[in-house]
Amino acid sequence: MAPVRTHPSYAATSSSSPITHRPSLNGNRSTSYSATNPNPIPRDEIARTKILLLGLRRSFPLSPLPLTPPHPPSRAGKSSIYQVLFNDLPSKQSFYLEATMRIQKHTIDTVIPLEIWDCPGNITVETLGAPLSQFATMIFVIDIRDLYNQPISKLVEFIVAAYHQNPNIYLEVFVHKAEKLQEDDKIENFRQIHERVSDRLLDISPEYEQMQLNFHLTSVYDHSLHEAFSRVLHKLIDSLPYLEELLNVFCANSQSPKAFLFDTKSRLYVATDASPVDSATHNLCCDYLQMLNSFGPLYKSISASPPRHRMLPSTPHPATPPPTAISPRPHTPTPLSPLSPNTTITTQPGPHAQLTLPHPHSLKKKELFYPSAATHLNSSSPGSGTTLTYHLITPHLALLALLPTSVYEGRRGLVEYNVVFFREGVQEIVEVEREVRREGGGNDGTG
Length: 447
Prior knowledge:
The chain is an alpha/beta fold and 447 residues long. Helices cover 28% and strands 18% of the residues. It is built from 8 helices and 14 strands. The strands form 3 sheets. It has a 6-stranded mixed β-sheet, with helices on both faces. Strands 8-7-14-13-12 form a 5-stranded antiparallel β-sheet. The protein has a 3-stranded antiparallel β-sheet with strand order 9-11-10, with no helix packed on it. Strand 2 (104-109) and strand 3 form a beta hairpin. It starts with 48 loop residues before the first strand and ends in an 8-residue tail after the last helix. Residues 1-44, 59-73, 307-318 and 320-365 have low confidence and may be disordered.
């Protein structure tokens, strides 16, 4: 009997050991570069975890009927996956993307630094130009309508090569363009692709049956792509148990039924609490984050704005002091005049008085501005329903949590207090990850 394959758990359990009892963070799954590595990373750079993105650009055979025009080449959709996730490309415009003709390397900064290799459809193991041992994950994108031997053979070729060069690599298969088929046909094609890949590997050698293959049904027209790529990202984050533990503590102390730590740009959730992930809740958080990303740039804090000079009209006063005189009365900031204690006011002769804000370099280091937002759900009656909250944690990460409206309105101060401690914990983990990767700049980040 073939061994049963179990998928890894993506959520922390309630029996997770406390943070203080866990081993120290190593921050990097990589090993040191050897002399045979053709592309060493300079010491002043951060070691990035590499992801290999593969697919096949398959050409349909010419139609035997003379009046029927030939079909255009079919693309797997890997470039559209990257553009939709990381460049905010609208899903409807992904159809017009040009085919990838050469290897494109994209760097992504999230909870861990990533380097995604977008490869052309005709790439092979020999023409890749880098050993598979440099990559932590290999994602093969296959069209859900491709039940032919060509794309499956290409996938099996890379799986066999990865087994010999890097047995610890994560193998992910995105059965893409799921929106092209009806629900029944979608499930049937997904099952056939899974079975054919497994049978082909078993025919080559029984030892390949032990390899862990993860199949995901994805589409750029819904949030299945974000959820699938998030699960891929979870396996690459060494600090994931610590982030999950912080989310568990936050949910327990804030009475939150569900909380996510999202990457703000790509809308991938890098961690969540121990409760199961509900697709409806995940989709709601993704839509809310997309709305905030669309309108967020319209609102900026004064502390984040560049120094400015404002001209205030002077008002006639019967007893105006000379320009050298300074009024002993301190200036009290008001909502309409947000001035810091270090702000100086200089009065010059003339029709206008000039107010000069201090240069940022002349002040101490300012704390970052962390915006927050909230929206009420199912609020038919006052105090009932659920509130979805948003708090920025780092420049790249944000906390999205569901809270009972009664808790959010009645104990908002306590919720904000818990957010502050959660933010400090996440920032410390991210800083440790960054320092370790910077010190190990000669590592390949593969594991």
